[in-house]
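Entry:
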Amino acid sequence: MAYTGQPHSTIRRTSPVMDNPNGDLKALLIRVAEHADKAAFAHLFQHFAPRIRSYGLRHLGSEANAMELVQETLLLVWQKARLYHPEKGAPTTWIYTVMRNQCFDMLRRRRASKEDLCAEELWPVLEFQAEEEHLSGGEDAVLTRQMAHYLGTLPEPQQQVVRGIYLQEFSQQELAERLGVPLGTIKSRLRLALQKLKEQVEQGHD
């Protein structure tokens, strides 16, 4: 099957109506695995594409990278659906694992090409426990209470950047324009925020 990505403006924000989302997603994924069912894949695309895009914006820092993550993740879902084993977990868990692995691969490629790594540096700090619920649309609050406390210790400009990118889901460029500061300032604040948050998280785990 030839996979063609869709511009983010055409990604549907809602999934098909499902009385039992996990059960229906599992059935769809099994149909893709066993029958290469294009209609089932289309439903999976509608459900997961906006969630993967949201994740990509937070971790990769730009619309282009987020859409690349959508395309590469869902292409792998189509190609490797046969590797999903229903008895081992929910379809959301399997697909989000594919997504996270693909995101790590993209970040490693960026390191190799010496691109800016702000998003990668923030990764270990902002991989919150509530992530899967957030991706599934179950919770709006991504920060745990402890992380919220850590965030509150940062200077306000650094808090603005972290909240803008990881909670409000702006790209770095969008946030720079919104705050009226240079893109380099956003990147610098992210780096400083990372260092402080990482130190606090590590101290909290000692």
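The chain has two domains: 23-113, 138-205.
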